[in-house]
Write a structure and sequence with these properties.
3 strands; 8 helices
Length: 175
């Protein structure tokens, strides 16, 4: 079974560690989305790789099983906001890691204007200033579903929520 204290790695490293083009692309993604390190990027790439592998496996299934599995996969990806409701398996295969990174809590907080930069959004989340439906979330890589997105605000106990003129708060943002 495995040791419960030692969890499995949730990512896989690149097979070629010193490819200049890949390193440059990773650096741009890390900076754009305010990731702490490349391991966070690799974790989301692995998540995307699993979805795409599942889509390829669905394409070779028998027709009756294929429809059911396709519906399950599309619903899951629609719920997290990566694909539209009427998507196909080919749309799953065309997903990029940027599509997954856009659904992280850190990115959503920044895009909603609750923070000035992705790095500030990360800090607000880790320090407990951001809540979803009144519940504080302390994980910047939390994948936000479509239903939760409108409910993201400052935490009720946060000084950012209590003082609309707080110096770290964006001007004109309503919590």
């Amino acid at each position: 079974m495995g040791d419960p204290k030692k969890s499995k790695k949730k990512y896989s490293k690149p097979s070629h560690p010193w490819e200049a083009e890949r390193l440059h692309e990773e650096l741009i993604l890390v900076g754009t989305y305010g990731l702490r390190n490349k391991r966070e990027l690799w974790r989301h790439q692995t998540m995307l790789r699993k979805y795409r592998r599942r889509a390829r496996d669905i394409r070779i299934m028998p027709k009756e099983k294929q429809e059911k599995e396709t519906e399950i996969l599309i619903k899951k990806l629609h719920r997290i906001g990566v694909l539209p409701e009427n998507a196909t398996i080919d749309d799953v295969l065309q997903l990029t890691v940027s599509d997954i990174l856009e659904r992280r809590l850190q990115t959503v907080v920044f895009r909603k204007g609750l923070a000035k930069t992705p790095y500030q959004a990360r800090q607000f989340i880790v320090h407990g200033h951001i809540a979803i439906s009144g519940k504080r979330i302390l994980i910047p890589s939390y994948i936000v579903t479509i239903d939760e997105e409108p409910e993201i605000t400052y935490s009720p106990t946060s000084p950012l929520a209590k003082n609309p003129n707080h110096p770290e708060r964006q001007k004109g943002v309503v919590s």
